[in-house]
Amino acid sequence: MSDYRMGQAETRFAEMIWENEPITSTELTKRCEAQLQWKKSTTYTVLKRLCEKGIFQNNGGIVTSLLSREEFYALQSEKFVEENFQGSLPAFLAAFTARKKLTAEEAAYLHRMISEYEEG
């Protein structure tokens, strides 16, 4: 699995792209200057790094995602469970619910997900 990790500033930057894509690199630099107080060079450096990670692409000055927001966060979740719970979703859920109880709605949703998985 590639390293799709992002720091806090990179995550804010990525959210800006996901919310506005496709976006021109010029418009992206303007938004980053206004919202993140970044210089043009900082924007292009971070964009290049995230393109190298395979999250975004800058093709002809048009920035788009290679991974959707949902795909990115799913990969982050998988990596977290793999690294911290030896890939065991039940171990993760046991740890999660040891301190934070599920609501009835959350439990019902998880039950539906499991039932749908079992049904194929």
Number of helices: 6
SSE series: HEHHEEHHH
Rg value: 18 Å
Instruction: Specify the oligomeric state.
Output: single chain
| Total count of strands | 3
Low-pLDDT runs of 5+ residues are: none
The strands making up the biggest β-sheet line up spatially as 1-3-2
Helical fraction equals 55-70%
Please tell me the overall pLDDT: 94
Outline the biggest β-sheet: 3 strands, antiparallel
Proportion of residues in extended strands: 5-15%
- Structural class category: mainly alpha
Tags for this entry?
three-stranded antiparallel sheet, 120 residues, 6 helices, 3 strands, elongated, mainly alpha
Task: Give a brief outline of the structure.
With 120 residues, this protein is mainly α. It has helices spanning 8-20, 25-36, 40-52, 69-85, 89-99, 104-119; strands at 23-24, 56-59, 62-65.
Describe the fold and architecture.
The longest helix is centred in the middle third of the chain and has 17 residues, at 69-85. A 3-stranded antiparallel beta sheet has the order 1-3-2. By secondary structure, the chain is mainly alpha-helical. It starts with 7 loop residues before the first helix and ends with a helix. It is built from 6 helices and 3 strands; from the N terminus they run H-E-H-H-E-E-H-H-H. The chain has helices spanning 8-20, 25-36, 40-52, 69-85, 89-99, 104-119; strands spanning 23-24, 56-59, 62-65. Helix 1 packs across helix 2. The chain is elongated.
Helices, strands, pairings?
Blueprint: H1 8-20, E1 23-24, H2 25-36, H3 40-52, E2 56-59, E3 62-65, H4 69-85, H5 89-99, H6 104-119
Antiparallel strand pairs: 1-3, 2-3
